Structures are given as C-alpha cells and as structure tokens.
Amino acid sequence: MHDVPGPPPTSPGSGPASGLVPLLREHAAATERRRRPVPEVVEGLAGAGLFGLAVPARHGGAQAGLPDQVRVLAELARGCAATSWTLSIYLTGSWLTGLFPEETAAEVFAVPAARVAVSLSPTGVLSEGPGGLKLSGRWGFNTGVADSHWDVLGAFRPTADGGREHVLVLVPTAALTVYDDWYASGLQGTGSSSVECAELPVPASRVLPFPAGTAVPGGSPDAAPELPRYEVFPLFSTLNTGTPLGIARAAADFLAERAPGRPIAFSAHQDQSLAPLTHRQVGEVDLKLRLAGLLADDLATRTERLAAAHLAHSLTERSTARASAATVAALCREAVDLVASACGASSVRADVPVQRMRRDIQALCLHAALNPDTALELQGQVLLGQTPRTAFL
Fold first, then answer.
1. Quick check: helix, strand or coil at residue 306?
2. Would you place residue 347 in the very low, low, confident or very high pLDDT band (cuts 50, 70, 90)?
C-alpha cells in the first residue's frame, strides 16, 4: 500500500450540520411518511449551504475534503438517516458533474443549491444515429431524484468494434419519467424512486466515459486540474460511512437520555441507568462506535491524501476501502441492535425513534456497496492473490 504523503486539504467542518439536527429530528417521521425529505428539511440544507459542499470551488462551491463531508453526513444522520443518505448521493453527483466539460458543469451549477442525483448501474442504452445521441432505459434506486435538478445515469454505448462501453449521461430530471414506487422498510425517506426515458436526445457534452479505476478525472479534456483525483468506488465507500455512523450515534444518545429513572420491566431494577447490564451495554455500544469512527476516519483521510497526491489506489487499497466501509456499517448495526435490545419491547413502537434507526441501519447493511459478507469475501480474495470478480472495486 502507498506511503501517503502530506496532510489532507482543510475545508469547512460540520458546524452548520449540527445546527440542523433538531430540525431533521423533528421532521424525521414526516420524511419517512412522505418517502422523501420534507420541504422544510430541503430548505434547511440549502440555507446551510450543504448542497454546495462537494461543488468545485471554481463554481462557487465549498469543495470540502472527504473527512469533512463524512463528518457532515454523520452529524445529519443523528437527526435523520434518510436525509443524510440523500445528501451523500447529491455530494457524489456534484463531484461527478465536475468531471464533465466545463460548459456542462457551469450550466448545472448556475442553479443555486443545485442537486444532482446518481444511478450509475448501466441499465440504459445510449444509441447514436442520424439524429444524434439518444438515451433509453429505466433506472431503479435513484435516491433523491424527485428533489433533484439533474440526474447522472449509467448506460452502455455500442462501440465500433461491436462491443460496448459504460458511460455516464447527465440528464435534466424534468426530462425523465419519475415513478412514485419507493416503498421500503428502511430508509423510506430517501425517495429512491425509479426513473425512465425513451429516445431522449442527449448532447455529446453531457456524456462521460465511466471513470472507474482511474485516479484522473474521467476523460474530460478540459476538466479542471484542481479537482480532487478521487477514484469512483473508493469515493463511494468513503461517503457511505457517514450515515451509519450518525445512526448509531443517535441510538447511543437515545439510550443515554432514556435510561435514567426508567425501570426494567419484570426485574428488580427501578432505574435502568443503575443496572450492571445497562453499564455493559452502554460500554459495548461506545466501543463499537469508537472502532467504527476510527475506521471511517482512516478511510476518509487515506482516500483524500491519495487524491491530493494524484496517486492511484492499488487493488488491495480499493478492496480495503470497500471492506472498511462495510465493516463500519456492520459495527454500527451491532451498536443499534444493542440499543434496541436495551430499550425492550417498547422499542418497536412507531413513536419510539430507535425502531426507525434499526430499520434504517439494516437497510444500509443490505445495500450492495455495504453488505459485509460480500465485501469481506472480496477482501479475502484480493489478499490471497486471487482475481476479484466484481465491477464494484
């Protein structure tokens, strides 16, 4: 692995996000019922400048480093996991947009608080004929699309040699059919709906070769040299750690507030905070959170420093990034499960927020990018010198 030089760039911290936690907590249940962040939350994020967190500085954005982006996502998830996860997708979309030709990026970021959704799986086809490029397809799990201005969609484009290449296509959300089909047991407030289009005309300036496995911007000849040279999947893995950290911290806070003076049903303990069992549970939750936080910090710092030094990730570093993110999520799930267990039967009530935290963290651990079983299997393959069999690396 690389001996990574130098400190990461400095950027704004999570102060504005901390101020939004009460607002997000107040509207978390409504966000879940609405199946996307409520307008008050969207306005709060916009007012705090968080939609510009990953926007390139040349377009008026903060261009914050990954450690700060992760801290913001973790802080927001203390109030609402769905809102945090939705913002993580918009941050990814902002960075990807910066890889497109300058005039394209300028058009997107000309809109204040521009939001770009992302669905990278190539479930569409970009064809070329006498009328130019046209996009057709359907994309699922398109988080945040209903509140986005643009959408980055994955597609296959036929090549001259009879093959096909994976490309990214930037499309105005208004040009897509957005289906109201996101009903889920966890992270329901993310609005991860399906979108569709047929024979949609696309200018060549809104098409980008998929930048997998490269430490340079994805092929755009005029992409600004000051853009961080992240690699797509290590970047995703890093951002994916923020939301689970925040969920678990919210659960720990909930138990600390709930336990004092509360009896443990059908036991001799009239104050849960005085029970030895509770002491052990709180201690274990704290340790899991510390371990998860250290792992997330290490991943964010290393990914940021490699990008700043224009160094490519080795195969082992890429598999470690994915395994690290999945392990962060797994540790956070274990912590939330401990809190829910400590809260007893009342934790399943709809008006007790820990039940939503538990469903949300479970949903994250089922995500293909954060599934611990899949990620650790891949890590083992790489460490044993075997060829990994996955596109997500």
1. helix
2. confident
